[in-house]
Sequence to fold (252 residues):
Amino acid sequence: MTHRVAVSGSTGRLGRLVCEVIEEHPDFELVARLRSSSAPEEGADADILIDVSRPDASPEIVLRGLSRGQQIIVGTSGWSSERLAELEARLTEQPDRGVIVVPNFSLGSVLGTALARIAAPYFDAVEIIEAHHPGKVDSPSGTAVRTAELMAEARAGRPVDAPFAEQPARGELVAGIPVHSLRLAGVVAKQEVRFGGPGEVLTVTHDTHSNEAYRAGVRAALEAIVAARGLTVGLDALLGLGAIGARSGGAA
Fold:
């Protein structure tokens, strides 16, 4: 059976890659390349909707897809824990539908976040520095937000030592962890998680050099969405990495 797919945000750098992955896959057919000027009814006949548009447009696009009974993959930033909770509540009304939210399609990035979660309970000081290309409109990135939230969860309520957090130059606090965002020409994506302890610093770094890093993750999400039910957050859940990070919580 061939599954029909519409892509919202198809003209962006990630959107173009998503379209390529769909066209290369024998089990999926790209039926609509949606952009900001597309009419709301375009892509309504698709079985699957992939949203890689903009943070301000994404919630409406996702809710519209759910109202049509579509399976949905979200690769757009800006889905906070509160927004995800609202989406999960909406899905309880549609138990036969599934949504996969992927803050980052890169396998290396997902592994970096899992490693950061393992390390989080062992250090008092934790900070995140993330850098992206100048065209990325949101900051901090969805990856940094998810990394911070997962590390805070692993710390089981133990606060991070973040002195002078009220000063703007100290970064935005996400789940109590300072996050610093850079938007620079020449950068695709980079995240550093720095852990400070007496006499030592541990840094977990991931660099993305091209959009090719996202191809395998897009394919994994595409294949998983067919049978997905309810809300799934993170590529780690599709790759079985969630349990690895979760084990660190008991070591705090």
Observations:
- Confidence is low (pLDDT under 50) at residues 243-252.
- The first strand starts at residue 3 and ends at 8.
- The two ends are 48 Å apart (CA to CA).
